[in-house]
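A student in our group prepared the protein record below, which I am reviewing. Here is the record exactly as it was handed to me.
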Amino acid sequence: MIEGLIKISLRNRFIVLLLAAGLFGWGVYSVKTSKIDAIPDLSENQVIVFTEWMGRAPQLIEDQITYPLVTNLQGLPQVKYVRGTSMFGMSFVYIIFDDNTDVYWARERVLERLNYAARLLPDGAVPTLGPDGTGVGHILWYTLNAPGMDLGEQRAVQDWYVKFGLQTVPGVAEIASFGGFQKQYQVTVDPNKLTYYGLSVPQVIGAVRANNNEAGGRKFELSGIGYIIKTSGYLQSVEEIQNIPLKTVGSVPVRVADVATVQMTGETRLGIFDLNGQGEAVGGIVVMRYGENADEVITNVKTKMSEVAKGLPKGVSFNIVYDRSGLIQESVNSITHTLIEEMVVVSLVVFLFLLHWRSAISIIIQIPITIATSFILLNAFDISSNIMSLTGIALAIGVIVDNGIIMAENAYRNLAIRQAELTAERDKNESANEIRNGGNASGNGNGKAEKAVGLPRSQSTPQNYD
């Protein structure tokens, strides 16, 4: 079969060259459209269910949230196993699916099951799905360089402006904010004063909620003009919360300020984010969506950052603290340099040992065509161009070079042997022809002499007819 393939290739060189050119062009297109990343994504195919129930102990979270969710999510199709983790005020459930399961199909099935499982949870605990990213989806970290601005204001800028702007970038699953203080109104109740006025904590909570609300009315027409009636009751300051009435004692209202202390402060934190030992900072983590091109997403995020920066307060700018694109470019440059170096070295080796420039050119042409074809297979199997795959290609270049040198040397040797055989056979034939021609020349010379000086037998010698 191999001999037949070689014969067909030798007889149809133009078709072989067209096929090689077509593969090379397809490979170049595959290189440009290939997904580029620094590290391979070896994480499991999982869906995360997050439930927040603040103020509860881990054991209570385990019994009333994590356990009901885990037991109800175990029966999903194509699920390998389900893991659950409980901590103070939060529950995490990890549903691990088979590797060949589509991640978005898996998320849909988890949502279907949560519609039933949510009824088993206590009031106020609402399970939500995590972002459609993976464990290696953190492609870029940034902080806000805001001198003179307190951490609460920085976090507000991050949560209410920067985050919303960067989330619109294609391929971004989530912008996770970190650091700073999340501003909130805190009402610190004095239990002694509650007892004195005969109030309870639920009454204080209910009064605050009832006074922080808006309601719509009807449309009122007067003199041919329609007016929309509504009530605006959102709390906007500490004083408004302090003046909320709780009950009336002897025609005197008991306000929130009489039983509690109201202040504007930050939400309770479980940790801080420190930047280079220079103090706390506020920023965000860009989480890439599953199966996206990391290099392209990072480029788009940086472009969007330049647009978002125009609306930041004066003196505030972005500071990128982690950028995977640098490692990606180093990986790509590494294989590019390796390719060029090996092509040069192989060309010199082949030319010096064979002293045949056509063999060297043949091997040089093989390397880029083979590498370009390998990217076609990478795209076909949805494998990104990362450190592992590019290193494999770089190592495979050695095999390609070895094969080219061996085949060139083998062809060169076989051609030399065949040429020697043909030369020996030609020399042998020429010697035989010379010997044969020499014998014929001697015989023909005697005959001519006899014919020239001799006479016919009947006339030169007497014949005895007796």
The CA atoms of residues 374 and 433 lie 57 Å apart. Confidence is low (pLDDT under 50) at residues 445-466.
